[in-house]
Design goal:
Structural class: alpha+beta
Number of helices: 24
Low-confidence stretches: 542-562
Number of strands: 13
Helix content: 40-55%
Largest sheet: 5 strands, antiparallel
Oligomer: single chain
Mean pLDDT: 86
Amino acid sequence: TWTGTDKDWVICSTWDAFMRHLLKTKLVLEYEDITAIISCFVKPPKNDHNNNIMAWPVASLITQVEKQLKDRKASPELIKSLSELKVGIEKERNAYSEKEQAKVIEKIDHLVFKTQNMEGLVKPTWFPGNDEFADYANASIKLLKDAEKEGWFRLMKHSQKASGGSPSKKYLDEGKELFKEFGADKFKQLVNDWFKFIITMKEKVTEHTHTYNGQNHTYTSSAFIAVPNVDMIKGFVWLCVHFHDKATLYNLATLADRCYKKIPGKGPAAASIGNASIYVLANSKGLDGVGHLSRLRLRIKQSSTQNLIEKYLYKAAEQQGVSIHEIEDMAVNDYGLVHGSKTYEFDDYKAVLKLTGAGKSAFDWFKPDGSLQKSVPAFVKEKYATKLKKIKDTIKQIGLTSTAQRDRIDRMFKTERNLEWEQFSEYYFSHGLMSFLTHKLIWSFEQNGTKESAIYVDEKWVNPKGTIALSPGEGTKVSLWHPVFSSVEEIKNWRTFLIDQKIVQPLKQAFREVYLLTDAEVNTRTYSNRMAAHILKQHSLIHWQKSGDGNIPSWETLIMVA
């Protein structure tokens, strides 16, 4: 029996490793034994070096208590002692051991609840971390009806099991049964509300001041989501793998984007939540998830995340029996647009959505007589509020998609991709969204050994002189025109043509800077006097695509890419 005297615990403190090993073995402890150990953790002797409760093997002790109370209930004295331990841990909460502290507190609460309540009752479970999200989410749970709270607490308890890089089938199946009991639609509505809240959350910046050698030093630290809450949120994200609706997938893609944004001094805000979102997108039905992954691959800069997304894209492409480029083509949503435009009917009124640029659009209202109305009609706000909200969400998605697709087309300069006409026509030229971008770009056509560049103007393909070019069809190869492969005269002609026609290209093409290798640089081989003392954007330069054989590109290739 542990007596808890100064002499006993000085010895135990000296043999700290022995204690930790002992509490992991199979023991038979009486209530008095457990109470004495807890007492010494909470109130250590004055001459003991372990003044921090979590410096003791508290987690191992609570695991032992769980085993001891498996078939019996705790005594009032033990309950009191456990409550004192919980209070002591809460007073010492810090960022370094917050996750472990939260787990220990949750186990203590469960032991106390089990003893003080009838068997079968569900213990209330909340987000334990001290952050803005926990306040918001816990408040939303409290608003649920009493009958619903019990089902939700089971889901909260289940989410605490989320660990590792991907969920087990058992975790997903058990979670599905639990949210079915609660109500799948209610579950989806609540978690999507949480995701939207996290997306708009700002980092919490805290200012710290400490004194050293008589001088005050001030610094700031940034925090996003408290560590104990991250795994639970990840667990709820994983459960969304059972849903394949556009709204949920869009929220998960936006959530991933937010969670990968870097916090000063810490890196990504919540990488594990971002990884969980990517997992769900990759395992969703259809190609909507693939479309979001393709967009995220262009937005997220961390190489590890890009590799993860690429792995999922290759897997999806393999399942479809196509290349990764082809599945990205197939996954682009047209949102019902026709040449970048869509009309919505509201009784006798109508609204016309038009793309005006990559990431930009106009939404115009028209009266029954066809005249323009400056604002949304009042009856539309009242009668069609839900429809209007969905349209606004769609406009946001179209903006993100059009920007991502512009960047994906720009990437074709580096990949030097060639397309068959049929594929180009379906996924680029005639596509409701992509056509808005592709009709303003110059393309190279190769047919029967003849190669010609052209742009689509007034429903026909024309060359830089404005005359009709060849008619593309079966057997025609299509690629994105790059000025580096053209003469100075042709580049000048294209620039003049675009200015005369007032065509604003969605990306730099005819007016793209070209740095050709000069004879002097060929002779110097390893350096360039022309480029000396110029500021180089390192990440833009090194963001090149490896060639098929994996060889490092030559100087000529790097200059062309830049």
